[in-house]
Hints:
The chain has helices spanning 7-25, 32-39, 43-49, 53-76, 82-96, 102-106, 108-117, 121-126, 129-150, 158-178, 185-200. With 203 residues, the chain is mainly α. It folds into two domains: 1-51, Arc Repressor Mutant, subunit A (Orthogonal Bundle), CATH 1.10.10; 57-199, Tetracycline Repressor, domain 2 (Orthogonal Bundle). Helix 4 (53-76) packs parallel to helix 9 (129-150), helix 5 (82-96) runs antiparallel to helix 9 (129-150) and helix 9 crosses helix 10. The longest helix has 24 residues, at 53-76. Residues 8-68 form the HTH tetR-type domain. Residues 31-50 bind DNA. Keywords: DNA-binding, Repressor, Transcription, Transcription regulation. InterPro entries: BetI_C, Homeodomain-like_sf, HTH-type_TetR-like_transc_reg, HTH_TetR, Tet_transcr_reg_TetR-rel_C_sf.
Amino acid sequence: MPKFVDKEAKRLEIISAAMKVFAQSGVVNAKMSEIAEVAGVGKGTIYEYFRSKEEIFSHAFELFFQEMRTALREIANSSDSPEARLRKFIKTALVDFTTGNEEFLNIMLDFWAEGIRSKNENVSQILDLDAIYSEFRAVIASILDEGIREGSFRPVDSNIAASTLIGVLDGLYLQWAINPFVFKFEEVGDFLVDNFLRGIKNN
């Protein structure tokens, strides 16, 4: 009787193994043979699921950001006040999605670089940085616009404010990747949300 293989489970196992290799060696220096060894499969098996290490890398981040997108959409569509949603957004981005995802943070530079320079159509369609950032900006801007309409936030340019907030978040991810002992995400999250709100609230 032929052995049943759960292809989706195997695909996720390969992605998980690849992230360990990427975190240790970097995407540029990682080899498919290393990924196969960590995954406990033959090198040929890897190619049954992915055409290149860049494609594995892209799918790994797509899974990560899809989970984040779902959570952030739920926040944006909740019935909480704009201030409460903004607080929850920042907490989710800085705390919930960094806990247990240290391997992703350790290779954020690879992620940005690969997303910017990729000329591989199959990779660029998956790792579309512009689409990812556009969606995050839109979520934040929608919360800000609602707060402005209600009068709880000052009439700021919501797109500029959203872009600024995302830039701060990315900067914190980068600093943590360089030295994870500089700060705790919980602490900087509280500081960031308090001061960001202080700047936009209609006192």
